[in-house]
Amino acid sequence: MNTIYKHLLLAVLVGFLVGAIDALFGRVLIWITAFRTIHYLWLLPFLPLAGLLITWLYHRFNKESLGGMTLIFETRLDKRKDIPLALIPLVMVGTWITHLFGGSAGREGVAVQIGATISHWLGKKCHLPDNSKILLVTGMAAGFAGLFQTPLAATFFAMEVVIAGYLEINALLPALLASYVACFTSRFLGLPKFAVTLPTSLSLHSLSTMGSIVLLGIAFGLTGRLFATMLAKAKSWMKRSIPDPYQRIGLVSIPLAIALMLFFGGRYCGLGTNLITNSFTHQTIYAWDWILKLFFTILTLSIGFQGGEVTPLFSIGASLGALLGQLLGLDPLLCAALGYAAVFGSATNTLFAPIFIGLEVFGGANMIPFALVCILAYVVNGNHSIYTAQSKVIY
């Protein structure tokens, strides 16, 4: 059978498998988030013990899986040959524990790692040539699409995130197919999709509006850059200052838990979906929401808790956008949507994925503002990324 047909058949299989696992992971995480929101006063005090449990699980069953997204990037760049299957249950359980006890973290890293691990394993079993590239991208796309149900954004995210400035075009068709299959599968199994219909569309016919777009692009780009650089420095500093992983997560999570409890009653725990909801429903957004969510997410991830960064980036961008919209005299909901996409794009050092996020989550009426703001944020970011293993094209 022609290799391309094998890739497409495997893409369908990967889409079904990853979409089903994403649905399980996402629905459990939704329940955990709701439960923790009600009982956070009883759960946050146990955050240090939860951190110790996560660390023990990884060191007991597969320490190599601690590499997380770095393992995926290294495999795609031919720096390693295998991704341990143990990564899948470990990263799922570790993320559930992190969120149950109030850590500020995301979820996309889990989905992408699950998709990449499954697709890489299937590629090896089928002895496909170049499976570490095409099938790995296919699995990453399926993981992202199954969780967020944005198949176009997922496809381009997977194609452009490993090597900044380069698109893995050979993987386009299987990645797109796997993304749609994963999206339909997770939706069929009851995982809801986040989507917002924006009430206004922005006309760019005035200089003042164009000036506001430029300011938004710069602000969102700098925010994503700040998150990426601070996360890398925090992880490095924590490892140097407290080399023992048990001491690092056990000791630092004590003040982390206290701070999360004291700052507005657990407002900055978990994914940050509460801030996203507030941003798009005219509820209270404080001027400091975005920076505190940024700080707590960086601290949570830098000491060893599991999860991802993208959903917190969505919440940081949305809350900052809602604030800037009020200051600039623009629709806060539209600016929140622009920040939702652009801060994610800046921090991940991707260009096309955030533009498609804007299309698939907020509709096509404001595609030109989304494209302009995301392009500006991408340029302002200056090639920084939350993924330290990300490679850059050198011209």
From TrEMBL:
Keywords per UniProt:
Membrane, Transmembrane, Transmembrane helix
Pfam families named among the record's database cross-references:
Voltage_CLC
Query: Where does the record say this protein resides?
Result: Membrane
Membrane spanning stretches? 39-59, 83-102, 134-159, 171-189, 209-228, 249-265, 285-305, 317-343, 355-380
Topology term for the membrane: Multi-pass membrane protein
Q: Does the keyword Membrane apply?
A: yes
Name of the protein in question: Chloride channel protein
Q: List the lineage, top down.
A: Bacteria, Bacillati, Bacillota, Erysipelotrichia, Erysipelotrichales
